[in-house]
Amino acid sequence: MKQTRQLFTVLGVRDLTDSTYVLRLQWSGPEIIPGQRMALGIPGLDERRWYSVYSRPNPHEVEFLIREVPGGLLSRAFRRSQPGDNLEVIGPKGHFVIDPATLDSTTYLFIATGTGVAPFHAFVQAYPDLNYILLHGVRYMEERYDMQDYHAERYIACVSGESGGDFHGRVTDYIEQMDVPPTHKIYLCGNQQMIYQVYYNLISRDHPKDGFAAEVYF
């Protein structure tokens, strides 16, 4: 099925680190459900990249958390875009979402690496009463993107490349020592290796297989 491309205007770029930034676009398309993703591209080029929405639902604008990849044509171009430039957008799409009917009865364990934290940021912004714990695996302290937007007691930074944070090591190390009740709903977003390791670790401890949702970031 051919995917419809639409043009939307760049509103701004907010740098977070030397390699990571938030891209903000004007939006007048379909309603975005927190956790969904969209494909961004440059008009005239066939290449596109999918990114989870980073911001809370807003009928007028949308944000994306993007890491500039060395040698990456699009991530470099998006960062250098100026207010008023147009980008091609496909979406929103995806089912990595929360059922609002379960919000009052569920504890969520969000586990992310790097910019895989994007959909969880959208969840927390959209659902202020959400009962959650967020494990965020990063190499450096500066990669705790917009950590002030999370409840301090619910955000656990697992920092592997330097001292600091809440835990020195990877999220896969942290999860091995963590007591995870079988009633927790597990959402995983990040690199494939992390997702597999966490999934099989918890499955080996009899966590129900239907208690997981995953989104792979390459």
Structure characterization notes:
With 218 residues, this protein is of the alpha/beta class. It has two domains: 6-93, Translation factors (Elongation Factor Tu (Ef-tu), domain 3), CATH 2.40.30; 100-216, 3-Layer(aba) Sandwich (Rossmann fold). Helices cover 16% and strands 33% of the residues. The protein has helices at residues 73-79, 118-126, 171-177, 192-203, and strands spanning 6-15, 20-26, 37-41, 48-52, 61-67, 86-93, 108-113, 132-138, 155-159, 167-168, 185-190, 212-216. α3 (171-177) packs parallel to α4 (192-203).
* Overall pLDDT: 95
Cα gyration radius (Å): 17 Å
Write the H/E string, N to C.
EEEEEHEEHEEEHEHE
Q: Helical element count?
A: 4
**Principal-axes shape call:** globular
Strand order of the main beta sheet, please?
4-3-6-1-2-5
Features:
Elongation Factor Tu (Ef-tu), domain 3; Rossmann fold; OxRdtase_FAD/NAD-bd; 218 residues; 33% strand; globular; alpha/beta; 16% helix; Cbr1-like_FAD-bd_dom; 6-stranded antiparallel beta sheet; 2 domains; oxidoreductase activity; single chain; 6-stranded parallel beta sheet; 2-polyprenylphenol hydroxylase-like oxidoreductase
